[in-house]
Amino acid sequence: MTSNLFCGYANAINWLQNNLLPCPFKKFTGIDCPLCGLQRSVIALMRGDFTESFKYQPATLLFIFLLVLGIPDSRFNFSKKPIVKKAAYVLTLMVVTGAYLYKFTSGRL
Prior knowledge:
This protein is mostly helical. The protein has one domain (2-105). It is built from six helices and no strands. Helix 5 packs antiparallel against helix 6 (82-105).
C-alpha cells in the first residue's frame, strides 16, 4: 500500500516535470519574468529539496504561506488581522523583486 502511494506521488512529480507550462513573458520578450522558476521550485519542494527550491524561486514558501492564509480568509472572512496579510504581501513582493534584481544584475537571465 505504501509503495503504491509513493510510486503514484513519484509519477505525479515526474509528470509535472515533463509538462511544465511555458512562460508567455519569456516567450515574447526572451527575458525571464520575475516568477520564472516557480514551477520548478514547487517541484523541488515536493521532492523535499528545499535548497534547490530556494535557488529556483526564493519566494515559493511565501507564496504557499499566502495561499494557506488566503483560502480560509476568503471563505470565512477572517479580516480581524489584515496587518498580517498585508505584511506577508509586502514581504513576498520584496523577495520576488530582490531575487529578480539579483538575477538581472548578475547576468543569470
